[in-house]
Design brief:
about 140 residues; mainly alpha; two-stranded antiparallel ribbon; about 5% strand
Length: about 140
């Protein structure tokens, strides 16, 4: 995947050397997961293969050890990052809704981390929690009396 200008600062200075080593020497111009050959039609999709590097275990750009990087075709890379892209879309949508004062209840289906994301957004100062008026609960002594 192309590296944005903002993110380029976070990658190591020798990124081009690492990229060339992994693609040309370690992977021998093939996807390390499906075996598709670089700049040739993909066996499954028929599109021309462009090999990229994917962060496999730790997705942080600074963590660019050779063991954390894999040479992948577009298809494998997109499949690998699909869950992260989905979570990113959900985060952006939650931020937008919460900034507009709309708390999405129930949470989007399949999102078990929604409350953690909500709390992270509050802690980071990206959003302010809505003021909720809770009913005053009586104590057990008030019911007895």
């Amino acid at each position: 995947m192309p590296i944005s200008k903002e993110m380029a600062k976070r990658y190591p200075a020798d990124w081009a050397r690492r990229r060339r080593f992994i693609i040309q020497y370690r992977a021998q111009n093939r996807c390390e997961w499906c075996g598709a050959e670089n700049e040739e039609p993909h066996p499954d999709t028929g599109s021309i293969v462009v090999l990229t590097l994917a962060h496999v275990w730790d997705k942080v750009p600074e963590c660019a050890s050779l063991l954390n990087l894999a040479c992948l075709c577009q298809r494998c890379h997109l499949q690998w990052d699909a869950a992260d892209r989905r979570l990113s879309r959900i985060r952006k949508r939650l931020v937008m809704l919460l900034q507009a004062g709309q708390l999405p209840l129930p949470w989007p289906p399949g999102v078990s981390m929604a409350m953690e994301i909500y709390q992270l957004l509050i802690d980071s100062g990206q959003i302010t929690p809505p003021v909720v008026q809770l009913p005053i609960l009586r104590t057990a002594y008030e019911y007895v009396a």
